Amino acid sequence: MSPNDSPIDNCILDPLPDNIRAAILTYAHESELTANAVIEGALKYFLELDTSLDNEPISTAEDVSLLAILPPILQSQAIQYAEKTQIPTELVIELAIAHLLDPDSVTFDDCQVKVEQTSIARLKQYADAKAVTAA
What's the start-to-end Cα distance of the chain, in Å? Predict the structure, then answer.
Protein backbone atom coordinates (compact mmCIF):
# COMPACT_ATOMS: atom_id res chain seq x y z
CA MET A 1 0.00 0.00 0.00
CA SER A 2 1.45 3.39 -0.96
CA PRO A 3 1.47 6.31 1.50
CA ASN A 4 -1.40 7.94 -0.40
CA ASP A 5 -3.69 4.91 -0.12
CA SER A 6 -6.43 4.74 2.47
CA PRO A 7 -8.46 1.76 3.69
CA ILE A 8 -11.32 2.99 1.51
CA ASP A 9 -9.03 2.91 -1.56
CA ASN A 10 -8.26 -0.73 -0.90
CA CYS A 11 -11.91 -1.66 -0.19
CA ILE A 12 -13.14 0.05 -3.33
CA LEU A 13 -10.62 -1.82 -5.47
CA ASP A 14 -11.54 -5.25 -4.09
CA PRO A 15 -14.53 -5.95 -6.37
CA LEU A 16 -12.71 -4.81 -9.52
CA PRO A 17 -11.13 -7.36 -11.86
CA ASP A 18 -7.44 -7.97 -11.12
CA ASN A 19 -6.17 -6.33 -14.30
CA ILE A 20 -8.32 -3.22 -13.73
CA ARG A 21 -7.24 -2.98 -10.08
CA ALA A 22 -3.58 -3.29 -11.07
CA ALA A 23 -3.91 -0.62 -13.75
CA ILE A 24 -5.64 1.82 -11.37
CA LEU A 25 -2.89 1.25 -8.79
CA THR A 26 -0.25 1.82 -11.47
CA TYR A 27 -1.92 5.06 -12.52
CA ALA A 28 -2.19 6.07 -8.85
CA HIS A 29 1.51 5.43 -8.32
CA GLU A 30 2.62 7.14 -11.55
CA SER A 31 0.44 10.21 -11.02
CA GLU A 32 1.05 10.35 -7.25
CA LEU A 33 -2.68 10.16 -6.53
CA THR A 34 -4.80 7.79 -4.49
CA ALA A 35 -6.80 5.11 -6.26
CA ASN A 36 -9.95 7.08 -5.39
CA ALA A 37 -8.52 10.18 -7.04
CA VAL A 38 -7.69 8.17 -10.18
CA ILE A 39 -11.31 6.99 -10.33
CA GLU A 40 -12.54 10.56 -9.76
CA GLY A 41 -10.23 11.84 -12.49
CA ALA A 42 -11.40 9.14 -14.89
CA LEU A 43 -15.02 10.06 -14.25
CA LYS A 44 -14.39 13.79 -14.62
CA TYR A 45 -12.60 13.19 -17.90
CA PHE A 46 -15.28 10.77 -19.16
CA LEU A 47 -18.12 13.15 -18.27
CA GLU A 48 -16.09 16.11 -19.56
CA LEU A 49 -16.40 17.95 -16.26
CA ASP A 50 -14.34 20.90 -15.07
CA THR A 51 -11.48 19.40 -13.06
CA SER A 52 -11.53 22.35 -10.67
CA LEU A 53 -14.88 21.28 -9.19
CA ASP A 54 -15.01 21.35 -5.40
CA ASN A 55 -13.88 18.13 -3.82
CA GLU A 56 -15.95 17.49 -0.71
CA PRO A 57 -15.13 14.67 1.73
CA ILE A 58 -15.98 11.14 0.67
CA SER A 59 -18.45 8.86 2.42
CA THR A 60 -17.56 6.77 5.45
CA ALA A 61 -15.87 3.39 5.21
CA GLU A 62 -19.18 1.55 5.74
CA ASP A 63 -20.36 2.46 2.24
CA VAL A 64 -17.66 1.41 -0.22
CA SER A 65 -19.55 1.35 -3.50
CA LEU A 66 -17.90 3.07 -6.42
CA LEU A 67 -20.54 5.80 -6.32
CA ALA A 68 -20.10 6.37 -2.57
CA ILE A 69 -16.41 7.23 -2.86
CA LEU A 70 -17.11 10.13 -5.18
CA PRO A 71 -17.56 13.71 -4.05
CA PRO A 72 -21.24 14.75 -4.15
CA ILE A 73 -20.86 16.79 -7.35
CA LEU A 74 -19.45 13.76 -9.18
CA GLN A 75 -22.16 11.51 -7.72
CA SER A 76 -24.86 13.81 -9.07
CA GLN A 77 -23.17 14.10 -12.49
CA ALA A 78 -22.83 10.31 -12.73
CA ILE A 79 -26.49 9.89 -11.75
CA GLN A 80 -27.59 12.48 -14.31
CA TYR A 81 -25.56 10.77 -17.04
CA ALA A 82 -27.02 7.40 -16.03
CA GLU A 83 -30.56 8.75 -16.18
CA LYS A 84 -29.93 10.45 -19.53
CA THR A 85 -28.46 7.32 -21.08
CA GLN A 86 -30.75 4.93 -19.19
CA ILE A 87 -27.95 2.80 -17.79
CA PRO A 88 -27.09 1.93 -14.17
CA THR A 89 -24.92 4.45 -12.34
CA GLU A 90 -22.31 1.82 -11.53
CA LEU A 91 -21.97 1.18 -15.28
CA VAL A 92 -21.25 4.89 -15.83
CA ILE A 93 -18.34 4.59 -13.43
CA GLU A 94 -17.19 1.37 -15.07
CA LEU A 95 -17.33 3.10 -18.47
CA ALA A 96 -15.24 5.98 -17.13
CA ILE A 97 -12.58 3.68 -15.67
CA ALA A 98 -12.54 1.47 -18.78
CA HIS A 99 -12.25 4.59 -20.98
CA LEU A 100 -9.22 5.77 -18.99
CA LEU A 101 -7.55 2.39 -19.41
CA ASP A 102 -8.59 1.86 -23.03
CA PRO A 103 -10.41 4.67 -24.88
CA ASP A 104 -11.88 2.13 -27.31
CA SER A 105 -13.45 -0.05 -24.62
CA VAL A 106 -17.00 0.01 -23.33
CA THR A 107 -16.73 -2.23 -20.27
CA PHE A 108 -14.10 -4.03 -18.22
CA ASP A 109 -14.73 -7.15 -20.31
CA ASP A 110 -13.49 -5.62 -23.56
CA CYS A 111 -10.88 -3.37 -21.95
CA GLN A 112 -7.35 -3.81 -23.27
CA VAL A 113 -5.57 -2.50 -20.20
CA LYS A 114 -2.61 -0.29 -20.94
CA VAL A 115 -0.94 2.50 -19.01
CA GLU A 116 -0.40 5.49 -21.27
CA GLN A 117 1.67 8.57 -20.61
CA THR A 118 -1.11 10.85 -21.90
CA SER A 119 -3.49 9.47 -19.26
CA ILE A 120 -0.85 9.85 -16.55
CA ALA A 121 -0.33 13.47 -17.65
CA ARG A 122 -4.09 14.05 -17.56
CA LEU A 123 -4.26 12.64 -14.02
CA LYS A 124 -1.33 14.80 -12.91
CA GLN A 125 -3.15 17.81 -14.34
CA TYR A 126 -6.20 16.75 -12.35
CA ALA A 127 -4.04 16.47 -9.22
CA ASP A 128 -2.60 19.95 -9.81
CA ALA A 129 -6.07 21.44 -10.29
CA LYS A 130 -7.26 19.63 -7.16
CA ALA A 131 -4.32 21.05 -5.17
CA VAL A 132 -5.03 24.59 -6.38
CA THR A 133 -8.72 24.21 -5.48
CA ALA A 134 -7.81 22.95 -2.00
CA ALA A 135 -5.44 25.88 -1.38
Answer: 26
Single-letter residue type at 56? E
Model confidence pLDDT, tens digit, residues 14-27: 778 899 999 999 99
At residue 35, the 3 state secondary structure works out as: helix
Cβ pair 66, 73 in contact under 8 A? no
Segment 118-122 long-range contacts (CB within 8 Å, at least 24 positions apart): 119/27, 120/27, 120/30, 120/31, 122/41, 122/45
Residues 95 and 105 sit within 8 Å (Cβ to Cβ): no
Q: Are 81 and 64 in contact (CB under 8 A)?
A: no
What are the pLDDT digits (tens) for 50-77? 544 444 444 444 444 677 878 888 888 9
Confidence of residue 46 (pLDDT cuts 50, 70, 90): confident
Residue 23, helix vs strand vs coil: helix
